[in-house]
Predict the 3D structure of the following.
Amino acid sequence: MKLWSGRFTKETDKLTEDFNASISFDCRMYKQDIRGSIAHASMLAKQGIITKEESQLIIEGLKEIEKELEEGKLRFAVEAEDVHMNIETFLIKKIGEVGKKLHTARSRNDQVALDLRLYLKDEIKEIRRLLIDLEETLLNLAEEHVETIMPGYTHLQKAQPVSLAHHLMAYFEMMRRDVERLDDCLKRTDYMPLGSGALAGTGFNLDRDFVKEQLGFTHVTRNSLDAVSDRDFAIEFLSFASILMMHLSRFSEELIIWSTEEFGFVEMDDAFSTGSSIMPQKKNPDIAELVRGKTGRVYGDLVALLTIMKGLPLAYNKDMQEDKEALFDAVDTVKKCLIVFTPMLKTARFKPEKMAKAARGGFTNATDLADYLVRKGLPFRDAHEVVGKAVLYCIERGKDLEELNLSEYQEFCRLIDEDVYEFLAVKECVARRKVKGGPAPEQVLKAIDEAKVWLGREKDVQAE
C-alpha cells in the first residue's frame, strides 16, 4: 500500500508506477535523505512534537537502514516511487508505527529540495578539490616552461611569439574563474529549505535554525513557495559546469591539434592515448577528444533543466522530478573529465624545440618590426604599411624577416639599421613584452608567484 493511498479507491496502474518512479536515479541521495531525516527527527523531539524516545528510535532505525543499504542488504522498490518513500517504508517496517511519525510537518517537496541541496554541496566540495588539483598541475608545468617559446595564434594563424608558460597560465586564469563561480554557486545552494512543507510551511512550531545548524547550512530559505520550487542553484551549477567544460574542451582542442605531426608540439603519454583497430601506426588523443565531446553532453543538461523550469507555475510540479538526471549526469561527467584530464596533462611531453622552430616562422615578429619603426619615430600606421610590404616581399622570395639584408630593409624604410636584427630575435620579442600580464619571463614568474599564493589560500579553504 502506498503511503499516500488514503483518498484513492484503486491500485496504481503498473505503467503509471514505472513512469512515475524516480528511484532508479534518485537512490544516490540516500545518505543525504537519511541525514535530513535524522536532523528533522531530532528537531521534532526538541520542539516536543514527538517524544525523545520516539525520536531516538527513529534515528537509530535510520542509521541501521543506512548501514544495511551500504552492505547491500536492502533493495529499493519501484513501488515506493522515490528514495524518500523507500527509506520511510524501510523505517516503518523496521520500527513499526513510530516510523510513521517521521514525516510530521514535512512534505516530499521540501524534503527533495533539502536532499538535492545537501547532495550538491557534497559534490561541489569534491569538484572543487579536483579543480584545485588541475590548477596545481598547470602551475607546475608553467614553472617548467617559462623560457619555452612558442607561436601565439589568432584565427589559428601564427600571430606573435609567447611562452608555453604564458599559454598555460591563460588556462589557469580560466579555471581560477571556474573555482570562483563554483564558490559563488555554493553560496546560493547553502540555504536550508526544510520546514517549507508542500508550499505553505506548517502550523507546527518548528525550529528551522536548529535543523540548519545540524545539517551545516549557513541560511534558511526565506519563502516557502520559493523554497520548494527553486532550482536556480541547480541551474547555476549546470552553468558553472558548462563553462568549465568549455574551458576543458578548448584546452583539449589545442592538445589534439598540437599532437598532430603537422604541429608536433606535444606527445600524449601512452597511458592516456589509444590505437587503431586497423592502422598499426596510430596513436590517438582519444581522452582529450572525449573531454571535448562530453562538453556537448553537459551543455545539454543545462538546456534540459532550463527548459523544464521555464513554464512552471508556483509551486512544485512533477516536471521538476526531471531535474535530477540532468544534474547527476553533469556532476558525473565533470568529475570523470577532471579526474582523467589532470594526469593526462601532467604526463604530456611538450617539445620546446618544435615550438621554438614554429615561433621563428610565419612572421611572428612582424609586429615587433613595426614597433621598432615606431621607436625610430615613424607613426604606427605608416610602420604597419612598411612592414606589410616587407612581409609580402619575403613571401614572394621565400624568406623570413630576419633573412633580409640591411640594403633590402632600407628599400622599405631608411630608418632601419643594423640593430634591427637583435630586435627581431624571437626570444627578445617575448622578453620585451614586460607589460603587466604579458608573456615576458619576469612577468610570467610574477604571475606564477601570485598564483601560488592564491592556490595556497584555496587549499586552506579546501581543508576547512
Residues 210 and 447 are 45 Å apart (CA to CA). The chain has a mean pLDDT of 95. The chain has three domains: 5-104, 109-153+163-358, 361-463.
